[in-house]
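Section 3.1: Structural characterization of target chains.
Under the original work plan, the team committed to producing a structural model for every single-chain target entering the pipeline before any wet-lab resources were allocated. The record below documents one such target. The sequence was received from the expression subgroup and is listed exactly as submitted; it comprises 417 residues.
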Amino acid sequence: MLGLLGLNHKTAPIKVREKFVFCEEDVKRFVPQLIEIGLNGAIVVSTCNRTEIYFDYSGKNIQSFTDTIEEKLFEWRRADKSVSSHFYRKYQEEASKHLFRVASGLDSMALGEYQIVGQLKDAFAIAEKHQVNSSTLIRLFNKAFEAGKKVRTQTELSKGAVSISYAAVELANKKLHNLTSHPTLLVGAGQTGELTLQNLIKKGCDKFTIINRTFEKACELADRHKGIAKDFSELENQLVVNDIVIASTASKKALITKEMVEKVMIERQNKPMFFVDLSVPHNIATDVNEVENVFLFDVDDLNAVVDETFGKRQGEIKKAEKIIAEVVSEFSDWQYTRNLTPTFQSISDNFQKINKTELEGFMKRQINNDGEDASLYADHITNKFIRLMIKNVKSITDNGRKKEYIELVNDLFNLAP
């Protein structure tokens, strides 16, 4: 069975979400523990807005096993059980539908955004790399990519869609009125960092500096967009000379602290600073906001900007939901058909067993192997199997008393009622 345990921006604030962020190393260490106790496989999707564990389980009680996953997760993260209320659980069609909505941008904070597709592909690749997926999960994620592609090509859901990075730049522009006159520092040179930089440039920002733990990556991004790259050791010095700071790294602890900003503000002679933290966990300590003339916003503060485009695409949402329902149905058909594999194998094994036994006995009694003999053998084996099927049907249907089973057999063999 397919299961999902997760939380997202709708069910949990950042202070809860940041406790459950997974990097590749976490997946490598955590998921094998679940496989050891009974899972077939699991894929962990972890972004600034969600952490979701999609898993494949063949045991009898998937709900009980989900309890076990949650217990191990809380133990892994040393989290208080009180935050359990922020998690949701979904199974079978509900789980697949949820993932397909995620892949289509319907469950994103920024409706229709495309960045989530890359994040899902990264999660899928990590599971493949560390061999913690399963055939069901591989099929599930491939159908999710298919659903996302259909929604984006057959609807206009993504038309006018905004990303979190776009919303961050819009917010900065609204608060400061003119980005061209404010030097900007970008901390982080990953995908989100580059998207943010592209949006800054569109708004006329031409004074920007990039800092990253790996200096080479900062240089590469700066070269592509004609910016300036600085070594990570220059972070505090760069805070002094930049009015806007946008952070988006994978660091699990704050890179910019209140004490650092207080010191910087003295050197800036209390000139206002605008911080946007796009990271989960926070890259900028939340108490930075307590410093005079410092304004700090995180991803949850970007909702107002994102929501402006929501109402304009209601009709496209309905179209997208219809497409997703069709893909969910296709995946469910595939999944339930797989449940019949043991039955098909049993039928095949029985055919082969009967064929082998009867053919050996038949050939012992025959002198010439001609067409007539083959016909006799065909009639013989057919009648043998018919008798076996009739015997089993009588037993299963209680000699015709269980009508629903009779209808099933009729449908199976396409017999007249």
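The longest strand covers residues 39-46.
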